[in-house]
Amino acid sequence: MTTADADGMAAVDEICFAVPWSKQAFYDEAENELAIYFVARDDGKCVGYAGFWNVSGEGGITNVAVLPKYRRRGIASALIGAMIREANTLSLGLLTLEVRRSNAAAQSLYKKFGFEIIGERKRYYSDNREDALIMTLRLG
Ligand SMILES: CC(C)(COP(=O)(O)OP(=O)(O)OC[C@H]1O[C@@H](n2cnc3c(N)ncnc32)[C@H](O)[C@@H]1OP(=O)(O)O)[C@@H](O)C(=O)NCCC(=O)NCCS
Fold first, then answer.
1. Total tally of structural domains belonging to the chain
2. pTM here?
3. Which strands make up the sheet holding 58-66, listed edge to edge?
4. CATH number at residue 110
5. How far apart are CA 21 and CA 140, in angstroms?
6. Per-residue burial over 9-48, b = 16 or more CB atoms within 10 Å of its CB, e = otherwise
7. Which mutation among 46, 52, 62, 66 tests ligand 1's pocket best, with the greatest number of atoms within 8 A of CB?
């Protein structure tokens, strides 16, 4: 991503998440040296994105999102593949993420790439106090 992607990513977030990030958050991510994001575009327009923070040798995935109209075409899979390749290039030990317990679609996506459920965070999400499952993929 570059700063030019921030508005488009925020627009995707607004549609995809109950508690979306602000536009400013995406501008901050563009400047964040620890953050690595990939953007899917259709005719220049952002239709999906995914990214992680490179912290202490581990990649913490912040978000994966694809606009509803573009789903089930392998876009999230392409974004996750790009993150895994980048994490391997950076010699990270693992990728980790939190996902809502009810989000079967995302869990199934991550499992396809070998992510495993290793724990949970009770009442993690602020909007409905839903639990998060912690999923990780060991690399290297
Ligand atoms: C989860 C999400 C990113 C998937 O994006 P996508 O581009 O449609 O995913 P892909 O086309 O690469 O799907 C890959 C696999 O994921 C699984 N999957 C994706 N959507 C699914 C659904 N609605 N139901 C069940 N499995 C699903 C399937 O195993 C799918 O493989 P298949 O199409 O061969 O069956 C998208 O639905 C989304 O943005 N959801 C809202 C935001 C969100 O929940 N993000 C994850 C936060 S942790």
1. 1
2. 0.97
3. 35-42, 45-55, 58-66, 94-100, 132-138, 116-121
4. 3.40.630.30
5. 32
6. bbbbbeebeeebbeeeebbebeeeeebbbbbbeeeeebbb
7. 66
Residue 109 sits in which domain range? 3-138
- 83: tokens are 């993150």
Could you list the pLDDT tens digit for every one of the 140 residues in the chain? 999 999 999 999 999 999 999 999 999 999 999 999 999 999 999 999 999 999 999 999 999 999 999 999 999 999 999 999 999 999 999 999 999 999 999 999 999 999 999 999 999 999 999 999 999 999 98
Question: Ligand 1, from 109, 111, 117, 131: best to mutate by most atoms within 8 Å of Cβ?
Answer: 109
Question: Catalytic site residue 98?
Answer: yes
